[in-house]
Structure formats: C-alpha cells, structure tokens
Specification:
This protein is mainly alpha-helical. It has 14 helices and three strands. A hairpin with a 4-residue loop joins strand 1 and strand 2. Helix 11 packs across helix 13.
C-alpha cells in the first residue's frame, strides 16, 4: 500500500510539472539527455522527478520564466531541502541535476550566465560498497540446487561473479551474446556502450549446463533471452532480487547483500589478487577511473594483513 501511495504521489508531481511555465525548457533538456547524451530511461526519470520538485519550488517563490533565474534561486532551494531534513546525498543528487540543467540552459542561450558556477556540491560522508569475502561468495555460488531453476540460478551467480556485470546487463543477455569457444561475452552498459567481457571456466561450465539441461524446460515460446523465468519470458530485476534474497537467507548472509554486491566484490577481489586498476575499469565498464579507484580503499586492509604476516620487521 505504501509503495502504491508513493507511485501515485510521483505521478501527481510529474503531472503538475506540465502546468508549470518553466516546464518546456525542462522537457527540451530531458530530450537532450536522452538523444545527445544517451542516458538511460531510469536516469532520465530520476532527473525529471528531481527537477519537478525544483520547478515547483521556483514557481512557488515567484519565478515564472528562466530569464530572471539566478544563483540565489539555487541556494534558496538547497536550504529548503536541508531544512526539510534531506540528507547530504539527496542534496548532492539534486545539485547534480540542477548543474546539468544550468549548463544546458547556458549553452542554448536561454540564460546569459551559468548560475551554478562556483557553487559547491554538498559534501557526503564516504560510503564504501558492501563487499563479500571470497568464502561468502563461494558459499553463495554453491547454494543453488541441481534442478531446473537451480541450474539457471547457479549460471547467473557464476556469470555475475566471473564478469562483474550489472544486473541489468546480466538479464539482457541473449543466446548469441556469448562466444563459448573464445570465452567472451558481448554486453551493453550505461549509455548503450558496448564492451567485450571475458568469462572464466567455471561460469562457462555453469551457463552450458543451464542451456543443455534447464533452459529448454523453462522455454514456452521462442525467445533469444538467455535467462528465463517460470513463464518462459526474460527474468526481471525484481525476480533476480527475490532469488538472491532467498539464497542469502539460506546460507545466513547479511540482508545488506544486493545484486550490486557481486560487482563490488569482483572488483575488490581482482585488486586484492594483483589486477591492474585499468583492467578492472575496462572490465566493469567505468567511464571514469575515479569510479574504480574507490575499490583501492577496500583492499588496504588486505595489504596491511599481508605486510604484518610477511615483513620481517613488521612485529
């Protein structure tokens, strides 16, 4: 019921945006993000929702067109969010959307100068991603049964850990995307950017076993989708979430383990075992190496442990 109420609230908020005189430029900006920048629909919706709040605030405070829009409007909005108990991460997300909008409005000469220049993004406390130990990953990979759904689940988990794919990338794999003889997978990441990812022996074996012994039992109508649900259609993100929660409970893992925990764990384990940072960046499909560098912080504990164990003057 609570989720339904939130969806109704979102729909009402987005509908009200269309009555806002500031809306036409927002719509053009969102089209620009989709067409020129190639951002995903999820990202576009997030921008649209945050900018709906921003435009509602601007209109309520007397701004009816962009010509009189300035730095004070942004500062007032951020103060409003802070006074209403919004977290630093929420403020930072809104600020990112506003800055991107300001760059667009300036480039299109809708406003003369960019009012977001020299405005600092609210500082967030560093939050490191949840990472499983190699022993926990092994327990999770061994959890599925050797039956029809179990073979599928085993293949998905092995493939996630082998490749570091995002869950959305995993579930969009078609049969023709895997080259079994060369051990590579073709996938499209954020912004529809294609990359080639190597697959290890264990994952290839698990996917082969699933295709040969399980997939045909799940298949109802012809589809190229690799991973199928009980209805014979492509498995959804929600479906995968439920399966993962089932297995984490089964082996007593923390409820904090998410599908993305696999991605974090792959990166951390690779770096712990000596992989080059650039290689990990390429594997995960990070556009900026700074995104990959967060995992170097997670390996420092391992470095200290090795140092204490093997350096002759450590103790």
């Amino acid at each position: 019921m609570m989720k339904m109420n939130k969806e109704i609230e979102k729909a009402a908020k987005l509908a009200s945006l269309k009555e806002n005189p500031l809306f036409p430029e927002i719509e053009l900006f969102l089209d620009f993000l989709a067409v020129e920048k190639g951002l995903s629909m999820n990202t576009i919706f997030s921008y649209r929702f945050d900018l709906a709040d921003f435009c509602t605030f601007l209109l309520a405070n007397g701004l009816k067109d962009w010509t009189s829009f300035g730095k004070k409007n942004i500062i007032d909005y951020l103060l409003y969010l802070k006074e209403n108990g919004k977290s630093a991460s929420t403020l930072a997300r809104h600020m990112a959307a506003i800055k991107s909008l300001c760059h667009y409005l300036t480039a299109e000469k809708i406003i003369i100068a960019d009012p977001s220049i020299n405005l600092e993004t609210p500082k967030m406390a560093k939050r490191y991603p949840q990472v499983m130990t190699q022993e926990q990953v092994q327990a999770l990979l061994n959890a599925p049964k050797n039956d029809i759904p179990g073979l599928r689940d085993k293949a998905m988990l092995e493939l996630l850990y082998a490749t570091g794919l995002r869950v959305s990338e995993l579930l969009q794999i078609d049969l023709g995307d895997i080259n079994f003889s060369l051990g590579f997978l073709r996938t499209k990441g954020k912004g529809s950017k294609e990359r080639i990812v190597p697959i290890g022996h264990y994952a290839l074996e698990a996917v082969t076993a699933y295709i040969e012994k399980s997939r045909s039992k799940l298949l109802h109508d012809k589809t190229e989708a690799l991973f199928l649900n009980q209805k014979g259609t492509r498995l959804s993100r929600q479906g995968f979430w439920k399966l993962l929660k089932q297995y984490t409970r089964q082996i007593g893992l923390s409820e904090e383990i998410t599908p993305h925990s696999f991605r974090h764990s792959v990166a951390t384990h690779l770096l712990e075992n000596g992989a080059d940072l650039r290689v990990v960046q390429e594997l995960l499909g990070h556009a900026d190496i700074a995104t990959t560098q967060i995992y170097t912080h997670l390996t420092k504990g391992k470095l200290k442990s090795v140092y204490d164990s093997f350096h002759p003057r450590a103790k």
